[in-house]
Amino acid sequence: MSTQPDTARPVASLSFEEALAELEGIVKDLESGKGKLEEAVAAYERGAQLRRHCEAKLAEAEAKVQAIVESPPGTATSLRDMA
User: Fold this and answer.
1) DSSP string computed for 11-74
2) pTM of this structure
3) What is the Cβ-side half-sphere exposure of residue 73, based on CA atoms within 13 angstroms?
4) pLDDT per residue over 29-74, tens digit each?
5) Which of 3, 39, 59, 64 has the most beta carbons within 10 angstroms of its beta carbon?
6) Residue 39: half-sphere exposure toward Cβ, Cα within 13 Å
7) What share of the chain is helix, strand, coil (3-state, %, to 5)?
8) 1 touches 29 (CB < 8 A)
9) What does the pLDDT read at residue 72?
């Protein structure tokens, strides 16, 4: 069991899926209750960063979908146009 967070890659460079997978691993490790306190605190901090990153990615995706839904009929709106 390792509560050491993977800090090799900056959170901002992670895709939603990568960040979520890392966050799930951290939660699993923390829930096990094993490991040193310092490692658990560092993992919790990394987890908080990952959570914020995932929330931002979801909000971005939601805004793109909402823009598509609200676009006038007959307009060709694509996700590439919104990037």
Assistant:
1) GGGS-HHHHHHHHHHHHHHHHHT-S-HHHHHHHHHHHHHHHHHHHHHHHHHHHHHHHHHHSPTT
2) 0.77
3) 0
4) 999 999 899 999 999 999 999 999 999 999 999 999 999 898 887 6
5) 3
6) 14
7) 70, 0, 30
8) yes
9) 80
